Structures are given as structure tokens and as C-alpha cells.
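Case study B.
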Amino acid sequence: MSAALVAEVLSWAFLMAGSVFLLIGGLGLIRLPDFYTRIHAAGITDTMGAWLILIGLMFSAGWTLISVKLVMLLFFLAVTSPLASHALAKAAFLRGLEPMLGRGLEIEGDDD
Amino acid sequence: MIAQFGVATAAILVCMAMTLIRSIAGPTVFDRVLAVNSFGTKTVLLIAVYGFLSGRPDFLDLALVYALMNFIGTIAVMKFSRFGDLAGMEEDEEEIL
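Model:
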């Protein structure tokens, strides 16, 4: 097996895995019942989906300047998307949006 | 060599449509901001993958700029939604935080 074939197979595998994670995240963004659970679904696309797709593109690009740009893109996404999710959840919680609690998970003293 | 980029582009477009549904139907403003932020991340991915699909991966600079602008936009909307103002924090900052 030549190196180009290995790189192409790895590119296929990473891109398909990233696409699957993107579709799972998009489905969760529609189907999940609560805002805080939808943050979890969006986090799947922001981490696993984006990282796997960018790594797959890196395997396809090889050792070029394009891979350096992809690494920078990966770094920016890895830094900024958890920060945005944190700010979003904190703003929603401080504005009084209550999380949906399941059975047996009621807050103490709130069950009258 | 082109096929995997086509499949990934189709997956990203389907996921963007789902995110758009959530941003239209979201009951609270936070759902809409979350959907717009997620839409921006998928736009970055779409720009990167489309560059490879068309054989000219020169659009990655645009993707970099778009990632940073998306982050700044989300933080700005969150600050507006939390403080009701974009200019600066008032002196009751300690109470809010």
C-alpha cells in the first residue's frame, strides 16, 4: 500500500465519521426537549463533527500550507466554541431560564 | 478523490437545514442564538470542504475570519442579552455577577 492510498483511506474515514457526528448533532438540535440539552447537541457538532472533518481535510491536503491553515482553524474552533457555549448557558441561567428536571430530580424544598 | 468531499458537503447542508429549523422554531431567544452560533460553525466547515470539493482550497482564510467573527458575534449578543447594553457594564456589576 502506498502512502497516498493510506492518506486517501484515512481521509474517507475521518470525513464520513465527521458527517455522521454532524447529522447526530443536527437531529439532537431538533429533537431534544430543553434548551440545556440542546447545548449538548450543538456541542457534538462543534467538537467531534468539526474536528473529524478538519482532520480528514488535513489527511487529504498533506504537508502543505493548507494544513497549517487547517490547524489554525481547528485551534480557533477548539478555543471559541466551548467559550461561546459557556457564555450562552450562563446568560440563560442568569436570566431565569429553568432547566427541565426529570422525575426524582426535583430541587430540595421545591416539591410542595 | 472528489467523492468524499461531496458526501461531507451534503451532510453539512442537511445539518444546516436542521439548525435553521431550530433557529426559526426556537421558543426562547437563547435557542435562536445557540442555533445561529452552530450555523456559523457549520458555515466554516462548509467553506473549508467546498474549497477542497472545487479543487481550489484557497478559501481557508475566509473560513478563519468567519470563525472569529462568529465567536465575536455570539459574545456580543450574549452581552446584550445579559446586560441590556453593549457599551459597558454599570456599577452594579458585582450584583449581577
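Chain A has a mean pLDDT of 85. The remaining cases will be described in the next quarterly update.
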